[in-house]
Amino acid sequence: MSYAEVIGDPIAHSKSPLIHGFWLEALGVDASYRATRVAPEELGDFIAGRAADPEWRGCNVTIPHKLAVLAHVGDPGGVGDSIGAANTIARGPEGLFATNTDAAGFYAPLAELDLAGAPVIVIGAGGAARAVLFALGKIGVGKVSLLNRSPLKGAALLAKFGLKGEALPLTAPLPPARLVVNASPLGMAGQPPLAIDLAPLPEEAIVYDLVYAPLETPLLQTADARGLETIDGLDMLIGQAALAFELFFGAAPPRERDEELRALLTA
Ligand code: NAP
Questions:
Q1: Does the C-beta of 233 come closer than 6 Å to ligand 1?
Q2: From first to last of its 267 residues, what are the pLDDT tens digits of the chain?
Q3: Sign of CA dihedral 87, 148, 209, 35
């Protein structure tokens, strides 16, 4: 039976098997999806082994392999250069290739909004922030204020993505913005909350938290209490998985059943 999987280290926490399993069952596709722990030193042999298995459709890739996989597979879309991270490996006519569905998954809930020229705040400068900044560049947002524990890292990322703006420490007061994105792990279970004051934000500001465990982060609760529009991390998680699912199994997942899937993921 054909199969796909998610690889990382650690990997037990991954929600990808639930998502892909839900869609496979809903569509009646005779295939499976699992989570596989792959240590960094095993990555090259793992990919070579899977490449030789005709039943293997590909994999999602999470920490710590998002950069390292690019040394082992093709990169026809140039995500190594453009985003600097891959989150999916699939089979193409030229063999295995890497791609990044995080940027499109992040963008999906914003697609109906007119954010061109709008000032944006991004918190964090890790792998997720890279996908976010890439998407914001494509949207053509205005000034980007990037808050990070190490502002130097933030400044380097702004330059890499050709975004105009400023790199600030996490303690800086927020400038007014139309969109605030938390792309740091702060607020995740086991991490301290993201301690920022939302008071400077205008009424029409949207607060988007990439963290999805818990779903209702302290940041989103505070934004909600202020009456601001919020977007939680499941939108992006489901969006990036949907694109990968099509690459693996050649079928569009049944997105009309997202509410059911969200209930399953938060049960
Ligand atoms: P990462 O690469 O480990 O990012 C770490 C970033 O967070 C760095 O900028 C780091 O600052 C900052 N940071 C980490 N711990 C901190 C702390 N205690 N205090 C202050 N700053 C801290 O992680 P990632 O892959 O970008 O993921 C970030 C978050 O996004 C995670 O919660 C992840 O679950 C979530 N995510 C969600 C989706 C989705 O589909 N919803 C997709 C991808 C990621 P320094 O640069 O100073 O070290």
A1: yes
A2: 999 999 999 999 899 999 999 999 999 999 999 999 999 999 999 999 999 999 999 999 999 999 999 999 999 999 999 999 999 999 999 999 999 999 999 999 999 999 999 999 999 999 899 999 999 999 999 999 999 999 999 999 999 999 999 999 999 999 999 999 999 999 999 999 999 999 999 999 999 999 999 999 999 999 999 999 999 999 999 999 999 999 999 999 999 999 999 999 998
A3: positive
Backbone angles phi, psi at 2, to 5 degrees: -70, 155
Residue among 210, 215, 231, 234 to mutate when testing ligand 1 (max atoms within 8 A of CB): 210
- Token couple for 244: 């990968």
Nearest-atom number in ligand 1 for the CA of 237 is 40
Does residue 64 line the site of ligand 1, with CB under 6 A? Answer: no
Does 151 contact ligand 1 (Cβ within 6 A)? no
Distance between CA atoms of residues 240 and 225, nearest Å: 29
